[in-house]
Amino acid sequence: MRSQKRTGGGTAAAAAAVAAAEGADVERSLSMDADEDDDKSKKKSNAARHHEFYYVDARRVIILDEDAIQHGTVCWDVSRTKLVDIYLEALNEVHPQSMVHIVMTGYVASNTHGVATTLQRDGSDYSAAILGKLLSSTQINIWTDVDGCLSADPRRVPGAYVIPDVSYNEAMELSYFGAKVIHPKTMQPAISANPQIPIYIRNTFNPSFRGTRIFVTSTTQSSDSEKCVCGFSSIEDMALINVEGTGMSKYDLAIRENCDAFMVIY
What we know:
By secondary structure, the protein is an alpha/beta fold.
């Protein structure tokens, strides 16, 4: 009898435990269903929200002081004020519940005298970086036709691969010595921003690929000795001539096609 009572009591306890577990599962399931419904309603709300695209001529925003240096320097405070004014202007012209997306031209700007000017070589990427700093963006994406910064010229090195992370300094060095993915001046607004802004080099034809991130850290900042070299770059059509003689200093003469000769005496 005692054995039967104990068994019966154990069965009752087990049944109660099963019932409690089933109740918890039901509550958890209802909670998950509620969360899924909330997510669906949020997605539906965002999808239903109207999107407005507002065109802006960059000459109305980016202002250069061409009297300061040869190619001009960005007047940050003036440009930021103009951008805010244009954004408020856009809000007044669209529906109150709309999400505003500003589409702005690149490469062009205005000087302090109100005359149209340009941002010179690689000005389109530079204008994107300028706008990124003006907006205090969390990142700047440069869309191009390659997957990112490569470890070497793929025309010369078939095994070249995309470098996932490159520091600002490494990107500048690679650019100065032949790499053509990004111009050094494009990085200036990202570096001078507070906080600094990472730049992503991404492929228009492969948008799902992460690309290369240019920021303060790098792939080479690792204990792995095989990753101590960031990449290789080269400059074509250049020859180096060493000139030496008795009683004279050593000369290095660099001659480049269609360029003047540069001589260094040391």
